[in-house]
Predict the structure.
Amino acid sequence: MPVRALGAAAIAMIAMLAAAAPAHAIPGCDKYAGPSGSDASQGTELQPYKTVKKLVESLAPGQAGCLRAGTYTGPDNGAAVPSPIYLSAASSTLRSYPGEQATVDARLELTGAGAKVTELTLDSATLNSTVTPLKLVGNGSAISYSNVTGDGRMGTCVQIGSGSTKPTGVVVEHNKIYACGSDDGGANKFDHNIYVLESQGAIIRWNMLRDNPGGWGVHLYPDADGTLVEHNDIVSDHGGVVFAGDGSGTKSDNNEVRYNSLTYPDTGGATPRYNLEGSWSGGPVGSGNTAHENCVHSAGAGAPSGIQNPPSGFTSTNNIVFTAGPGDSAVDPYRIWALNPCAVPVALVGPRP
């Protein structure tokens, strides 16, 4: 893979694609919860519920539940496997009250078709470290404009699909998802920022996926098909994006990874990983997977960090690969510097300011 600088044509392409980013619409509120509320109340703005569970269970299809500023926990966060809170009403929304920021420390599952979370902070501070705080299993379910963190403990932050469902059209966009897996010297590799387990046609775009030494920014395994991964800033994770299968014939096919910045992977420990790679557990490799027009950092000779060569189960075309020179490790990958050819239009990536 040739090493080259980011030229004028590539900069113009990034600017054009940035201009096409979708506008953000703020929905209204139909039901409310607040730290000083009561689950025996009516869930109105003046008489809000107290818990997330009561709020989401009160929503009818198409309604939005709004959380006043504060931190909300689940009903049994101290349990080894806490009970999920299900957002099950079709096209329902869970969000912060406009102009405020609420934090949810609970196990959420979006099971309703078109159910979505937006403008929230999901912080799994009191959850068991093996529990995923957010699962998207409903067709067309989504999370946007939110912060999701695992607080540097072991655990995946966002999971798409499950062993029993294969949702279609899940969307993860404009989020900051970070510190999901623990720093255990690189021995662990199973805790991902986004884990696409079973899925068809998911879209993962305009996210910051960072600071996860315990797994990949995006892990496509074992049956993630037709996923579009684009415009993400993926930095300082154990690995960037991996196309993968379970070795028995269940594999991820027809996924496209494009226009992403994949920089500064965590290369420590026993099993350093690439920023782009395929991993098939000794079984059939995937088909129809592509990676193109990405900007990828490589640490050069030694530990893997750039693009797997030769690619396994995916094609790699027109990717920009750069090798860090002296002093480049101090460059902030979220700012536009001459030394960092993977600069992206960061004003359009991650949650709104």
User: Anything to note?
Assistant: DSSP finds two helices and 27 strands in the chain.
